[in-house]
């Protein structure tokens, strides 16, 4: 496999990751969250969204 083919595949995969992140964000925005966790962070049991409670 040539370097150019590898670079093109990386570019396509990065675009796919970007699309998937957008889709995940939309799902998390529409979710009726049910959080569980501890004093530092909580995670939604439905969509895996994380809220940081302590910095």
Structure description:
- This protein has one domain.
- Helix content is 51%, strand content 18%.
- It is built from one helix and three strands.
- A hairpin with a 5-residue loop joins strand 2 (41-44) and strand 3.
- The protein starts with a helix and ends with a strand.
- One of its GO terms (biological process) is proteolysis.
Helix fraction, binned, reads 40-55%
Provide the gyration radius in Å.
17 Å
- Mean pLDDT, to the nearest integer, reads 94
> What is the ordering of alpha helices and beta strands?
HEEE
Structural class: alpha+beta
Q: Count every helix, treating DSSP H or I runs of 4 or more residues as helices.
A: 1
Question: How many strand units?
Answer: 3
Q: Name the shape in a single word.
A: elongated
Distance between the termini: 46 Å
- Number of domains as seen in the coordinates: 1
Q: What does the secondary structure layout of this molecule look like, with pairings?
A:
Layout: H1 3-30, E1 35-37, E2 41-44, E3 50-52
Antiparallel strand pairs: 1-2, 2-3
Give a summary of the structure in a few sentences.
This protein is an alpha+beta fold and 55 residues long. The chain has one helix and three strands; from the N terminus they run H-E-E-E.
Any descriptors?
55 residues, coiled coil, peptidase activity, protease, hydrolase, elongated, Serine protease
């Amino acid at each position: 496999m040539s370097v150019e083919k590898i670079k093109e595949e990386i570019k396509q995969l990065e675009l796919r990751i970007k699309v998937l992140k957008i889709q995940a964000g939309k799902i998390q925005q529409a979710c009726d969250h049910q959080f569980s966790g501890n004093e530092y962070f909580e995670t939604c049991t439905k969509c895996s969204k994380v809220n940081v409670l302590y910095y």
